[in-house]
Amino acid sequence: MNTGNDFSELAAMLDWVMTNGMTVANLNAGTKSVLPLNRTVIAENDDAVIVGWSVMRRSENEPKTWAFTSLIVHPDFRHKGIGSALIDDVTAHAKSIGITELKSRVKDSEPAWLAWAESKGFKVDRQQFRSSV
Predict the structure, then answer these.
(1) Whose CA is closest to 37, among 79, 87, 84, 94?
(2) Residue 73 lies in a domain
């Protein structure tokens, strides 16, 4: 991954899909974070355009058999197997290093994302709500 060019493209895609202020600085900070597990994978189409992204992380305070994962596929490239390939990669890597429990987050405003995660074996463990005044 070319952190200069790829991070600009990746940050733009993630910011557009997640709508929460993803920046190149955020991505740089994430990759430079000293964690026992900090793995990022990008998916590109045939034109070398970034169309998907996954991360798997675990802090030093978490059990070695546990990890957090997240993945995003650009809406224009969904339903083409990219998300399935990314989650298959995550689960295969997790299994290869002894991780038996993966956790993730799904926005309540994205029921299709939840349905997809459940189709991959994830289940709701808890719900969190954000509120603001």
Answers:
(1) 94
(2) yes
Whether 63 is in a domain gets the answer yes
Rounded CA separation 48/67 (Å): 29
Structural domain contains residue 79: yes
- Dihedral angle, C-alpha 122, 65, 28, 127, nearest 10 °: 40
In the beta sheet, which residues pair with residue 44?
A: 50
For residue 8, tell me if it sits in a domain: no
Could you read off the pLDDT of 33-83 as tens digits, one per residue? 667 788 888 898 999 888 888 989 898 899 999 999 989 898 889 999 999
Task: Return the structure tokens found at 85.
Answer: 């390939």
Please check whether residue 30 is in contact with residue 50, taking contact to mean a CB–CB distance below 8 angstroms.
no
Alpha-carbon distance of 68 to 44, in angstroms, equals 23
Number of residues in the chain: 133
